[in-house]
Amino acid sequence: MTHLLSIDLEEWFHANLLDDIIDKSAKQEVRVVENTIKLLDLLEARKATATFFVVGFVAETQKDLILEIKKRGHEIASHGYAHQLVYKQTEAEFKHDVERSKDILETIISGKIAGYRAPSWSITKQSLWALNILDDLGFLYDSSIFPVSNFLYGIPDAPREPHKPVEGLDLVEIPPSTTKLLGKNFGYSGGFYFRALPVTMVKHFIKKNAKNEKTPSLVYLHPRDIDTKEPKVKLKPVDHIIHYLNIKSCYKKFDKIISSFEFTSMIDYYERILTPEETDYVANT
């Protein structure tokens, strides 16, 4: 089975755990370019294709990086403009943020984008209205609804497999991967979950989902997940663990995972598997 790979392309200071700590309007150290190139080189070496969910602010300031990602054969998708939590925006603010991101990305790559992912998976039960807006804006798929429950995001009873979340809309939801443990859903394939779990356990859950659920796993990282030189800020103990745990070992773990399985972009999966022979949409061209 071919699995899905995505990179949330954002700066280290875009992490929402830092919202009340970092002044994002002030000039901050640029870390995203160096770490993204490192990831791109690894993906090329392992012959893996990914979807890069790009924050509009990063695209606006690092156009050459976006073009390099596209040049290397990866999909460009939207991660909003300012990495703001969806449920902290009004519908008008959200639409403006996403439209701004979409326009910037499509101008840079001279092509369409098909996918969207909310910052910190922040399409929750109180912000499901965002799906109608994404559909209106012409997105083909969303990857924002995490079927877990925690302090920042999640809809624990949401479907764990790709589905259409709103009746009557064409928009398809491709959720991040979870596994069932003691009757509850747990993440394993990206971000903090990926950094926290041993590589053998991540491999086990990928194989388990493929065998039992007949569903590919969606692996995701941020450039900061491999950044051993990221500026350190003072966080609450739990937040410090979530943000910094096992960064030193993440690159090698990521290499082991993408060397062990086949990976493709989300638009490739959408076109080949979810809508075979039903779409003539070719993203980023």
Q: Summary?
A:
The protein has 285 residues and is α/β, with parallel strands linked by helices. It contains 10 helices and 10 strands.
Structure description:
This protein has a single domain, classed as Glycoside hydrolase/deacetylase (TIM Barrel, Alpha-Beta Barrel). The strands form three sheets. Strands 1, 2, 3, 9 and 10 form a five-stranded parallel β-sheet that branches. Strands 4-5-6 form a three-stranded parallel β-sheet, with helices on both faces. Strands 7-8 form a two-stranded antiparallel sheet. Helix 1 links the parallel strand 1 (2-9) and strand 2. The chain contains ten helices and ten strands. Helix 4 (91-109) packs parallel to helix 5 (129-136). The model is unreliable at 277-283 (pLDDT under 50). With 285 residues, it is α/β, with parallel strands linked by helices. The radius of gyration is 17 Å and the shape is globular. It has helices at residues 32-46, 56-61, 63-71, 91-109, 129-136, 191-196, 199-213, 237-244, 247-260, 266-274; strands at residues 2-9, 51-54, 75-78, 115-116, 141-142, 172-173, 178-181, 184-187, 218-221, 262-264.
